[in-house]
Each structure stands twice: as structure tokens, then as C-alpha cells.
Design brief:
single chain; mainly alpha; two-stranded antiparallel sheet; 2 strands; about 60% helix
Length: about 170
């Protein structure tokens, strides 16, 4: 179990749900991406720009959000793993989605981008030593370990997949 001092309480829902299964960070990254691919690979075209309620993200926007979050947090993991003590800023997830222009993007390109980003995340985590995984840095005003971030990626993706299954499909 990852000690609670390695992440902010907000992230507990993502990290604790994943770490319970007893699988490694890498295994979880691979499993979550497989579930992601299965969920979206045969999605009807009419669902791609669908939002289940006013003010909610479309499925394309949701996928872009997962991609953006993983990129931002991978940068954090890299900095923390290298013992960079710079306090990293937060990011406005709504602003990122708002300015991503996903409505004109090809859906298959989004799916491929997620696969490529996840492959990069897996390679990054394979490069970390056990010592590096335990290093802690500050992002969005909260302390976070490289290890906790590794579980967060899968937990965040699975969280959104559950919402997709409940409210979009």
C-alpha cells in the first residue's frame, strides 16, 4: 500500500482503487489501456461528439482530457524522479479541453495518440529505479511520489471508463 503522505487526498479515489489489485504499475498501465481500447475501438460515429448532459464533455473531449492529464503528470513524474525540487504548477483541465479543438480531430487519431502516450508512460516507468519511484515532489501545491503518479494514471483512466460505461454508452 502506498502511504497516504505520497499523494493528496483528492487522488485517493484513483490510486487506492488500482493498488488494491496487487499488480505492478506497469501491469496496471497495460491493463487500463487494453480496457480503454476495447471500450472505444468500435464506438459508433454518432457517439464521438456525444455528451450525456449540458456542460459535460463529449467523448472526444474526455479522451483528450485523459491524454492531457497523463502528459502533464508524466512531466511531474520525470521531474520528481530526477530530484528536481521545483514546485510545479497545476493545470486547468477545463481550459485544456476548451482549447484542444477536438471537435475537428479524427477519432482514430485520438485513440492512437492515447496509445502512444501510454506506451511512452510505460517506457518512462520501466526506466525508474526503485529509489526513483519513492522520490517526492510538489505539483499543484501537493506532495506526490513518482510511485503514486504511476498508479494514478491507470486509476484516472479506469475512473473515466466507468463514467463512459455508466453515462455515455
Amino acid at each position: 500500500m502506498i502511504p497516504k503522505n505520497e499523494y493528496a487526498p483528492y487522488y485517493a479515489q484513483y490510486i487506492q482503487a488500482i493498488e488494491k489489485n496487487g499488480k505492478s504499475i506497469i501491469e496496471n498501465l497495460e491493463l487500463a489501456q487494453t480496457a480503454f481500447k476495447k471500450t472505444f475501438e468500435n464506438l459508433p460515429v454518432e457517439k464521438q461528439n456525444y455528451a450525456y448532459a449540458e456542460g459535460k464533455w463529449t467523448l472526444k473531449e474526455l479522451i483528450q482530457h485523459i491524454i492531457d492529464t497523463e502528459r502533464v503528470f508524466c512531466y511531474r513524474a520525470l521531474c520528481f524522479s530526477r530530484s528536481d525540487k521545483t514546485s510545479l504548477p497545476g493545470f486547468d483541465e477545463d481550459l485544456f479541453v476548451e482549447n484542444a479543438a477536438v471537435d475537428v480531430r479524427n477519432f482514430e487519431d485520438l485513440l492512437e495518440e492515447m496509445a502512444v502516450v501510454r506506451a511512452g508512460t510505460i517506457l518512462l516507468y520501466k526506466s525508474f529505479s526503485e529509489e526513483a519511484l519513492l522520490r517526492i515532489g510538489v505539483g499543484s501545491g501537493n506532495e506526490m511520489s513518482v510511485r503514486a503518479l504511476g498508479y494514478l494514471f491507470s486509476g484516472h483512466q479506469i475512473h473515466h471508463l466507468n463514467i463512459v460505461k455508466e453515462r455515455y454508452l
